[in-house]
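Troubleshooting: if your tokenizer reports a length mismatch, compare your output against this known-good record of 179 residues.
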Amino acid sequence: MNLIYDEMALTDLEDVPGPDLLKVITAAYRTRTYLSGAATTVVAEADGQVVGVAFGYPGEREDIVDDVMVDLTTQNAAFDGPYEPEPETHPGEWYLDSLAVDPAYQGRGIGRQLLSALPHYARRDRQTVIGLNVDRENPGAFRLYERMGYQVTGPQMIGDHTYDHMQLRIGQPVQTIHA
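Known-good structure output:
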């Protein structure tokens, strides 16, 4: 996941030493909010280790998820101040915030497997659309999302960087029956 933050080149994080950023990211992924509260973390395992991760949440929970990073960066002296995340989601979507596969395991279908699992979680959270932002400088990721049925809905600025916002319609959410 640290690779994603590096590639995003967010100005708020550029002066933070790598070990301090990794410490905050690791702490965030250990919170209830990230694991199974407001957000969902899905992992892929191979050879007894985690080799891929997908992290997402319903867009209306973005502030709750972002507050975890704000709180953790406020508590870490390596940060000049709290991290100030920018809105990334679009209304009415389950947002895939991050997808990462260990470089040693790329090209083995792990990203596809993680993406294939997401509709279950989106429907569980009563969403019918999954959205994501893909770096225009990552054509491999763009092709994967396109092959999985995602379509570009327009540009998305995050920091000083332009991404393509993509969405996938997945159908009806899981219905809860109350007796």
